[in-house]
Specification:
The protein is of the alpha+beta class. The two termini are about 25 Å apart. The chain contains 9 helices and 11 strands. The chain has an 8-stranded mixed β-sheet, sandwiched between helices.
Length: about 350
């Protein structure tokens, strides 16, 4: 118990409860603005952060109270339960980066391997979506580019949750899959690659130094891909945005209106420009938005082997499991939490 109390005291100092309470007061004031819901995306972000922050503060205060009670009663069984609760909370101490508390923009790109790689990219997309569902995180698909035969060429998600970027940033890099090919009659063993990119959602107020001039933008509008029949989008609501000075191209196509897709594209561009600026200042891309090396052999951060044996292993943390089905169904908590401690 004394060791646990010391750990909690150290954590509380890092957690900075007073700063979080101040931020909570700011968010509560914003939530009372009668014009808040005129911008629904901003309103959702504010309410999400407010709810997450309130839950965090309540958990820290409740845990401190329960620790004191257990200490006075010398309740060993209760102490073990409290240690488990605290271990989950303790992870927040690793989320102290400037943008760790921001929503995340997570992109998946098929690498070498053709149809196999596109199928693998879609498996990764499902894995992350299931992970977000289990966490209760709000994930919106901004863009999805389907493959010709199967899977996806790329997809971009906006993950709105407190500390989404902090939790996910170490998922960035190349993910390698080894399996028997479902696209080959001989079921030969196939190696496929896909890359994951993770950026914080940067708003104008977060980083006013990022100046986006209208004359530097090339807007293109097209119809969103549909499932056919009545679902075909007959209006050009999808948006592609090219930033002429940097050459960065982004797109958003899943929102119902062109205006919503324009906002999403601008947000994505701002985050990409932030990452580009950080790269120039720090000269180490992997510290900011992950390792941008080509998704090929030798650059992977994690291996997913389904044949001739079953194993998922992270090459940075050493975390591994033979329960591949659970991992591909979103059970990646152990890998994500180990990444926080890198």
């Amino acid at each position: 118990m004394e060791e646990l109390m010391d750990r909690f005291k150290s954590f509380k100092g890092t957690f900075d409860l007073e700063r979080r309470k101040k931020r909570l007061s700011e968010l509560e004031a914003k939530s009372l603005d009668p014009n808040l819901w005129e911008d629904q995306e901003r309103a959702r972000a504010i309410m999400q952060e407010l709810g997450d922050l309130k839950s965090e503060i309540e958990e820290v205060e409740a845990l401190e109270e329960d620790l004191q009670i257990a200490r006075e009663l010398a309740d060993e069984k209760e102490t073990l339960k409290l240690e488990e609760r605290f271990s989950k909370l303790e992870l927040k101490a690793y989320l102290s980066g400037t943008y760790d508390g921001k929503p995340a923009i997570l992109s998946i790109h098929a690498g070498q391997g053709g149809t196999e790689a596109m199928d693998w990219a879609s498996m990764l997309l499902r894995m992350y979506m299931r992970f977000f569902e289990k966490k209760g995180w709000d994930a919106t698909t901004l863009e999805e580019n389907p493959g010709e035969e199967a899977g996806i060429k790329s997809a971009t998600l906006l993950v709105r949750s407190a500390y989404a970027y902090g939790y996910l940033k170490h998922e960035a890099g190349t993910h390698r899959l080894v399996r028997q090919s479902p696209f080959n009659a001989d079921k030969l063993r196939q190696t496929s690659f896909a890359s994951v990119e993770v950026l914080p959602e940067i708003e104008e107020v977060d980083y006013p130094d990022i100046e986006i001039k209208e004359e530097d933008l090339n807007w293109q509008f097209f119809r969103s891909a549909g499932a056919g029949g009545q679902n075909v989008n007959k209006v050009s609501t999808a948006v592609r945005l090219i930033h002429k000075p940097s050459g960065i191209t982004v797109s958003s196509q899943t929102a119902r209106t062109q205006e919503q897709n324009r906002k999403s594209a601008l947000s994505l561009l701002r985050s990409k420009l932030w990452a580009l600026g950080e790269e120039k200042r720090q000269e180490e891309k992997k510290k900011i938005a992950g390792d941008y090396s080509p998704a090929t052999w030798g650059t992977q951060i994690r291996n997913y082997v389904l044949h001739p044996y079953r194993m998922v292993k992270d090459l940075r943390t050493g975390v591994e499991t033979s329960d591949t089905d659970s991992v591909l169904d979103g059970g990646i908590d152990e890998f994500v939490e180990a990444g926080l401690k890198l």
